[in-house]
Structure prediction request, 633 residues.
Amino acid sequence: MDYSLLWLDWKKRGGLPPWTGRVEGTPETPQGKAALRELREGLAALGAAPGTGCLRLREEPGNGEGWTLTREGEDVVLAGPGRGLLYASFSLLEKLALGREVRPEASAPRYPLRMLDHWDNADGSIERGYGGNSFFFRGNRPVCDGRTRDYARLLASVGLNACCLNNVNVFGEALELITGKYDKVLREIGDTLGEYGVSLWLCVNFAAPLDQGGLPTADPLDPAVRAWWRETCDRLFAAVPGLRGFLVKADSEGRPGPQTYGRTQAEGANMLAEAVRPHGGTILWRCFVYNCTQDWRDGKTDRARAQYDTFAPLDGAFGENVLLQVKNGPVDFQVREPVSPLLLRLERTRSIVEFQLAQEYTGQQWHVCYLAPLMKEVLDFTGPTGAVKDRLEAVCAVSNTGDDCNWCGHDLAAANLYAFGRLCWDPDLGSEALAREWVKLTCGPDPAVEETVTDILLRSREVYEQYTSPLGLGWLCWPPTHYGPSPDGFEYDRWGTYHKATCREIGVERGPSGTGYSDQYGPELGALYGSMDTCPEELLLFFHRVPYGHRMKDGRTLLQRIYDDHFAGFAAAEEMAAAWDRLEGRVPEDAFRRVRERFKEQVRSAREWRDIINSWLYRLTLIPDEQGREIYL
Ligand code: GCV
Prediction:
């Protein structure tokens, strides 16, 4: 095996309870059987020895995911349907591995759909992938092998239950995934994932009736198009029993969609929903719809507004088996954005929030950036319509995995995968607790390692934010790769992501006197965000065009705050790298070396960010740093 098992690499430890020596039960479902196997193998690896009592698995009928743990005399009983037993087993193994007391409890997931989206292409590359190539596609075809199974185990171990195999941008051989050509291997993948309770999803091309079906149109209201999708789904769902539905990127960044035919997003989504409905299928319809050919001279169009403006008026028009998939922020996975107002607005439409574990704009898995705090911020965000986490039906994230030996490129990026799964099961868990758990499960019980790595993880997002793009401004990165600084890179381009910096002020005004974006939050939040005086400072430059001399709450000018953040962020990156160096000999040698290499790059890049952003603003303003630190002309 040329890859690690991440947190599932159970390590021998003493002091296991006596009932762990024997596991009994005769589960009948594939998931129940997987639970039994995981427990037997996991307990043996943890060093369980024969003792008094035993661990019993009691499989109950049904397809639910909840489970209970009770004591019966000297025995411990895990009860639930097969899928529940699977989650119970991993939870128990984790507790034992962490040395925690095992107490009676009941657990059930908060969301029925907890999903990872792969942006894997059929040719084996991964769009915005930073952990190697695809392990789902090799040689321009899907593959099912031992890694598929280990991946399913990893997902199940943190409670994830769905995975979308291919990139939302569907091209090349991926167009054939629904045509019958790959039914056999898709079935194998579906079954392998299904053994671990993970359902299979595919991204489809909205224009497939035209591109693959040979029809003259893909108009969602055309009877022949509707019939084509129905027949395609009838065949596909019968051939691939693990399939649960489609994820669709339509009318987005050049992808075809209903707009071409003058139809609404609801008409497009509902047409597909009707085709998958007889098979119990669901359509995940992405809301990432905006004008990506904006003229930078056009000061009226505000990309941040686009998704709400398109979808809010359609609330209630979507079929029951449609979920609108909404990115966590209104623009695109920047290190800091406000919560998407669409997530607060939809009332009669089911929704799924989309996070991005793939660190496209957050350091590309060369920089540490622990994303649990960002995800918590979104899930816990409470507006007049309640907390986001209570309004959602489902949660998904763009996966950060690939075929690298450590799955994620950066060893510490696996913490994001772990925390994401756990938060989907229980959004009330805390970022710090999850970080600590992940460190201990991955690196063992050394307290120095736990403290150091937890501290690095918890600081990492803020540090990244400090040395890159300040106060919600975003988009100062190099356009071709989205990595490294290039403050004017996006400025005169078509993406609708502008800072409009002059010698006096910076940012786009999105309050009532500007694009009016803040009004999408309703009266209370709209007023909060809409005024520079009340807008939370960390989002000041997302919402407002601000003079450099604007006084921040602590009395510093905006410009000085930006300078300070960049100096502090770089210093913190150096500190984190030094802290990691002190762990030499305490973490496995290969992981130590890999992470040290990544830190070298992070420090190099952080210095570049600091100097380029500070110089850019100094050259614009000619206002020096109050502390006289070096800024380059
Ligand atoms: C998969 C951003 C990324 C694209 C991505 C797109 C999306 O624009 O840069 O690579 O496409 O988001 O989420 O669809």
In short: The chain is about 35% helix and 10% strand. The chain has a mean pLDDT of 98. The pocket of 4-O-methyl-alpha-D-glucopyranuronic acid is lined by residues 119, 127-128, 167-169, 249, 253, 288, 332, 360 (CB under 6 Å). The two ends are 52 Å apart (CA to CA).
